[in-house]
């Protein structure tokens, strides 16, 4: 199939505009028009992973972490990043990364942690803002239903678990068509009064082109009047980390043993145990120390993540248990998540899970 078929699907699961500014998710090497016959999925893209792809005749590698974060000025093979990119290009292997955009969706990295730990009723811990816009348009009242439905079909009007949301007010519109116009109602050169409906609805930033196209194609007027406003509202189902509840309260040690087992962590760095049982749990795949205040404010009894620095452990202030399970350990099941999604969408496409552990950290126990 075309590479674009897979990348478009992945970007529907986790839109690229959900990623952080520093990130480099998306297609790093390759063209959307390239034909792909098989894909290899891993957490990181290393030389070992590229060699595995070559051996297994995979001409696409999908990873969570991008191999390239910063601009490369030279391709001399002096660093592992340069060598990976060079080897991929020489062997016609496309490289695709789905990183913080997958971190920021409820069915993504943190959602997979919740699933494995049995955390229930999980929701986003720190929702993102500036991902919504509002559309306001005016059309003849007799055509309002048709226009609304077209906007809804294009993705407008979704608010959390609700769809087809809009606000409508009736009013009187006026216009006068000039020479060369072909007005839907009224006559050229004469001011016309028309009973109109003001339609207000919201849409996600990435859907703007699709929503506008639906408006212009289904609105009866020759010249369509509309306004678009940027919103600072938070999108509740998109953002960093997740928080939910265990099926039953657990003692501190029992909870840590559960985390260690389910997340296959060799070691857990944690703050002091507390004289209360664990019920409400916050999680964040990867480096999540920036969410500590959010976890405390949300009333979490424990916070599972990775990459806490020494002094950051003090910030828990005995309000919750920080459980640092390691960066790789917190994200290692992301590959399984991606494979499950791709196989469900493309059941006849060959997709393989890497046989290699790319964790650069070793433990001397």
UniProtKB/TrEMBL annotation:
Claim: rRNA processing is one of the keywords in the record: no
Lineage: Bacteria, Pseudomonadati, Bacteroidota, Sphingobacteriia, Sphingobacteriales
A single MF term (Gene Ontology): metal ion binding
Residues noted as binding a divalent metal cation 2 in the record, renumbered to the chain: 64
Record flagged with keyword Metal-binding: yes
Name of the protein this chain belongs to: GTP cyclohydrolase 1 type 2 homolog
One GO term describing the cellular component: cytoplasm
Organism: Pedobacter polaris
Binding-site residues, a divalent metal cation 1: 65, 103, 327, 331
Keywords: Metal-binding
PANTHER family documented for this protein: GTP CYCLOHYDROLASE 1 TYPE 2 HOMOLOG, NGG1 INTERACTING FACTOR 3
Gene3D superfamilies: 3.30.70.120, NIF3 (NGG1p interacting factor 3)-like
Coiled coil: none
Top-level taxon of the source organism: Bacteria
Record-linked InterPro entries: DUF34/NIF3, DUF34/NIF3_bac, DUF34/NIF3_sf, N-reg_PII/ATP_PRibTrfase_C
UniProt signal peptide: none
Family stated for the protein in its record: Belongs to the GTP cyclohydrolase I type 2/NIF3 family.
Assembly with partners or alone: Homohexamer.
């Amino acid at each position: 199939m075309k590479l674009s078929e897979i990348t478009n699907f992945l970007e529907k699961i986790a839109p690229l505009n959900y990623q952080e500014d520093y990130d480099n998710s998306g297609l790093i090497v390759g063209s959307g028009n390239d034909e792909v016959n098989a894909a290899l999925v891993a957490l990181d893209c290393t030389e070992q992973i590229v060699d595995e792809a070559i051996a297994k005749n995979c001409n696409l590698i999908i990873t969570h972490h991008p191999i390239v974060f910063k601009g490369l000025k030279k391709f001399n093979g002096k660093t592992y990043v340069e060598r990976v990119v060079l080897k991929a290009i020489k062997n016609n292997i496309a490289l695709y990364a789905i990183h913080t955009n997958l971190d920021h969706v409820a069915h993504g990295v943190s959602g997979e942690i919740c699933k494995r730990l049995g955390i229930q009723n999980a929701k986003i811990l720190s929702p993102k803002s500036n991902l919504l816009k509002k559309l306001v348009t005016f059309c003849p009242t007799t055509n309002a239903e048709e226009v609304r439905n077209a906007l809804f079909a294009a993705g407008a009007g979704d608010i959390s678990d609700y769809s087809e949301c809009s606000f409508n007010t009736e009013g009187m519109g006026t216009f006068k068509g000039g020479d060369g116009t072909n007005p839907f109602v009224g006559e050229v050169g004469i001011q016309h009064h028309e009973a109109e409906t003001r339609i207000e609805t919201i849409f996600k930033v990435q859907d703007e082109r699709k929503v506008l196209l639906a408006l212009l194609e289904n609105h009866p007027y020759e010249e369509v009047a509309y306004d678009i406003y940027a919103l600072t509202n938070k999108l509740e189902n998109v953002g960093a980390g997740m928080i939910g509840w265990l099926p039953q309260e657990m003692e501190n040690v029992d909870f840590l043993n559960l985390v260690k087992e389910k997340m296959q962590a060799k070691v857990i760095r944690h703050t002091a145990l507390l004289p209360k049982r664990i019920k409400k749990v916050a999680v964040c795949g990867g480096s999540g120390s920036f969410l500590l205040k959010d976890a405390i404010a949300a009333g979490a009894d424990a916070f599972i993540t990775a990459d806490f620095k020494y002094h950051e452990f003090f910030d828990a202030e005995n309000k919750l248990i920080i459980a640092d399970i390691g960066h790789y350990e917190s994200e290692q099941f992301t590959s399984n998540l991606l494979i499950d999604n791709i196989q469900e969408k493309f059941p006849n496409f060959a997709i393989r899970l890497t046989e290699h552990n790319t964790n650069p950290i070793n433990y001397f126990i």
